[in-house]
Amino acid sequence: MKKYVCIACGYIYDPELGDPDNGVNPGTAWEDVPEDWVCPLCGVGKDQFEEAE
Q1: What is the pLDDT along the chain (53 residues), one digit of tens a residue?
Q2: Using alpha carbons only, what angle is made at residue 1 by residues 14 and 28, rounded to the nearest 5 degrees?
Q3: What is the distance between the terminal CA atoms of the chain, rounded to a whole angstrom?
Q4: Burial call 20-42: b when 16+ CB within 10 Å, e when fewer
Q5: What CA–CA distance (Å, rounded) separates 26 from 5?
């Protein structure tokens, strides 16, 4: 599964880890992360992420 990086702060969403503190279980693909989820570090929306290289 692909990782995604926050273009505002550099936080990397890793699907293998998810974001359990914010309701996203490990193993959750980016496409399945809720649209109202926000970056746990800076609070920007999912639209401010891009595919990590």
Answers
A1: 999 999 999 999 999 999 999 999 999 999 999 999 999 999 999 999 999 98
A2: 60
A3: 12
A4: eeeebeeebebeebeeebebeee
A5: 17
Hey, which residues does 19 pair with through a beta bridge?
Answer: 24
* Sequence letter at residue 15: P
pLDDT for 53 equals 87
CA-CA distance, 10 to 14, in Å (whole number)?
12
Alpha helices in the chain (DSSP H): none
**Residue 33 is encoded by which pair of tokens?**
């992360």
